[in-house]
Amino acid sequence: MSEQTGKTILITGASRGIGAACALLAAGRGYRVVINYRSDGGAADGIVRAIEEAGGSAFAVGADVSREDEVLRMFAGIDARCGRLDALVNNAGILARQMRVDQMDAARIGRILATNVTGSFLCAREAVLRMSTRRGGRGGAIVNVSSRAGVLGAAGEYVDYAASKAALDALTIGLAKETADEGIRVNGVRPGLIDTEMHASGGEAGRIERLKSSVPMGRGGEAIEVARAILWLLSDEASYTTGSFIDVSGGR
Ligand code: NAP
């Protein structure tokens, strides 16, 4: 474990998958890590333990990012425990069972947009209020975890999810421009087919196996491969990069 930087990072949806990989890597780079989760507190505690056992610092906070009151409570807790916020990864995201657009109802579409879009807006808002040099903050960096689906459309699977990620990309571009002269950089990553439990929630645990021949590199990706891109965008190595995207998709 490297030396502590004194910096605090919030990663939403960090109890498993890409968020958890990001949390472990961020701790290794010296961040104090706030691990947000929605329902699986046991899994979040497991990531906290792994970080602490490696000599890092972390704590878990349960909050549904689609609920404004819970987001406000989470940020107030970070203020109280850390007194600063330097980085945010808007990673929490959901999809629903595969179906065509002509089968989707409003409730389903609303659930997807509430977590993937509204949740990311709310967390970005609270982060900017704390980071902006215009408001006395020390600046910071935000990474939004989008998807190649936002570009490809996810036809026959989940166009609602793809549309939510295209909206997230617009947030990345617009917020980057709004805050560029306030010490804040905002970027996005667009993962391709990454080996996590998310595919099972769409009803097809073996989705990567079925689709991997469509990936120029011929394989799915690992969560850590996405986490490395996220941590680079957050780092000073990316000091002149804002409103940009890294596709982590094996060429797909
Ligand atoms: P995952 O394994 O399903 O994990 C999702 C995480 O988000 C869990 O920690 C979950 O917590 C949390 N979460 C869900 N809804 C939440 C809410 N409303 N509030 C707070 N936390 C919430 O997913 P993943 O594959 O790691 O995906 C992470 C991100 O990468 C998502 O934004 C996803 O869209 C994106 N992505 C994934 C892939 C892929 O192939 N896996 C590809 C492109 C983009 P609980 O378990 O406690 O509910």
List keywords for this structure.
252 residues, Rossmann fold, 15% strand, globular, binds NADP nicotinamide-adenine-dinucleotide phosphate
Characterize the structure shown.
The protein has 252 residues and is an alpha/beta fold. The chain has a single domain, classed as NAD(P)-binding Rossmann-like Domain (Rossmann fold), CATH 3.40.50. It has 9 helices and 7 strands. It has a 7-stranded parallel β-sheet, sandwiched between helices. It is globular, with a radius of gyration of 17 Å. 48% of the residues are buried. The model has no long low-confidence stretch (mean pLDDT 98). Bound molecules: NADP nicotinamide-adenine-dinucleotide phosphate. NADP nicotinamide-adenine-dinucleotide phosphate binds next to helix 1, strand 2, helix 4 and helix 7.
